[in-house]
Amino acid sequence: MASILSAKHFHDERAAYAFVEARVWANGRVCPHCGVVDNSTPLKGKSTRLGVYKCKEKACRKPFTVKVGTVFEASNVKLHIWLQAMHLLCSSKKGISSNQLHRTLGVTLKTAWFMGHRIREAMRGGELAPFGAGGTHVEVDETFLLRDPDAPKPRKPTRKPNWNQKMKVLTLVDRASGRARSFVVDSLKAEDLAPILSANIAREARLLTDEAPRYIGLGRMFADHQTVNHGEEEYVRRADPVVHTNTVENYYSVFKRGMRGTYQHCAKRHLHRYMAEFDFRYSERVALGVNDTMRAERALSGIVGKRLKYRDSSVAP
After folding, report:
1. In whole angstroms, what is the distance from residue 70 CA to residue 84 CA?
2. Backbone angles phi, psi at 149, to 5 degrees
3. Are 105 and 85 in contact (CB under 8 A)?
4. Which CATH number, 3.40.50.800, 1.20.140.10, 3.30.420.10, 1.25.40.10, labels domain 137-266?
5. What pTM, to 2 d.p., does this model score?
6. Is the pLDDT of residue 209 over 50?
C-alpha cells in the first residue's frame, strides 16, 4: 500500500495547482476580482508565474491565481507544502504543533505557526442550520482551560485557578448528525448562554445536560430537557439510557488531550480557531465515513474568502 503523502500534488507544484483548482473551481474558474465565471485565459509567458490567469471581462482584465482570495494568498510557501501541512493537520486527531510542522516541512517556526492558523481558519465552518431539527437529541456541556487573562483576579493569589478564573468553552453536539459546535464564552450565566443556545438549537430539540442550575431555565426554551446528576455519580439515566452527556464528554476528552499534550499554551484570542479545528475533525471523523484524505479535501473547500493577515491584532502572538 502506497503512502498517502506520495501523491504527486504533495511534491510537484504544477500538480498542486491542478489539484486545488479542480476543487476550488469545480463549477468553473471564478475571477476573485469581479466574480465572472469561465471568462479568463491562462498566461503562458516565459516569465509568468505558475497558475496565473487573466480575466477577459472588459471592466476587470486583472491577473489572478487560485490562491487569490483564499487563506493561501500572499504566501511565499509553495502550494504543495501547504497541501502537506493541511493533510498533516487534518489527519492528526489531537493536532500537530507548530514546532512539529516547522521540523517536518522545513519552514521557519513563525511560518509554521501562521500556516496552522490559516488552515484552522479554513476549517472554521459557517453553518447556520440549528442542531436538533426534527426533535433529535442535542447534548450541551462546558469545560475549562488554563487561566483566563480577562477574569477578575482573586484577592488572595492562588497557585491553581478555580473554574471561574479559567477560559470557558461551551460545546453543543448533535447526536443525529454527529457534528459539534463550540464557543469561547466569558460567562456561564444563563442570560449569556441563552442567545447561543437559541441561535444554534432548534426549538423542537430534546436538550440533554448535566445538573448545573444554569440549564434549568434554558431548558424551557426547547421541547424537552433531561439531565443527569454527575454529583450523584449518575452518568446514564437508568430508566432512559438515552439520557446522558457522554458524547460531548468524549469530545472534550480528545480536545483536552490535544490542548494539554500538543498545543500546551494557547492565548485566549486564538482559542476560537483551535476550537474550530477540533470541531472540524470531530464533525468529519471516520465514524461518519470520512477518512483522512476526504477530511483534508473538505478543509480545502473552505479556503475561499478567508484570507488571514499576520499583522491582524487578533491573530499575531
Report:
1. 17
2. -65, -20
3. yes
4. 3.30.420.10
5. 0.91
6. yes
